[in-house]
Specification:
Number of strands: 10
Helix content: 25-40%
Order of helices and strands: EEEHEHEHEEEHHEHHEH
Radius of gyration: 19 Å
Strand content: 15-25%
Structural class: alpha/beta
Distance between the termini: 35 Å
Largest sheet: 5 strands, mixed
Number of helices: 8
Amino acid sequence: MKYKLDSKKFWLGLMIGNSRLHWAKFEGSQLLKTWDTEHSDLEENRGNCLDSVPIKLASVVPEQTKIWQQYSNVEVITLEQIPLKNLYPTLGIDRALAVLGAGTKLGFPVLVIDAGTALTFTGCDRDQSLVGGAILPGLGLQFSALANKTAALPQISKPQHLPQRWAIETPGAIHSGTIYTLLAGIRDFIEAWCQDFPESQIVLTGGDASILMTYLQEYFPSVYTQILEISDVIFWGILVFRQKQLESTP
């Protein structure tokens, strides 16, 4: 991963997730491109020319944070710097940035569902105050947990389309049990949120967002039509953070 960027013009956003590094390249306030890479060690990153490129970093993996802090132009975004109300100390910075970005861009109230390694729900009201949320194992983690913690159940991949509900073989039964239960949970959380905030935007993001949208379109089309699939909401949040920094600089 080699960068040759004009540091006066370009900057990078880096979100360190549980499974991958999520990158964004910005020119001023314009998001140019995004991409993902694997977690890495410091030796792998030597010679990447990143010392001359400003990086705004958010992370949920402390070991990876330490690696990237070796670069002189890396600034770690902390929860205390997020301009939202009622945040609790252990809220994940990824969740805070996602709901900040979605709400700022689309309007508050907003509910963000992040379908990554964990599946999270995070909601803010019209006053930009955290209402709360929920966390459960994501789709892939549920599959791998069954394979790793049982003697006979296999490791399986995610089906590209909604599986048969009443399966007649083991992989299909895992698909059915996991996916239909997960979709029912998503629908339930959305319905509960919309009872309190009927005017709210609902955003689905994360690595499994597209496949979950496929399942929802097939199984719960009325829920599907309520959701905006947006991959960049965390980077929207990083951009909001940077803009507020610039506004507060004399």
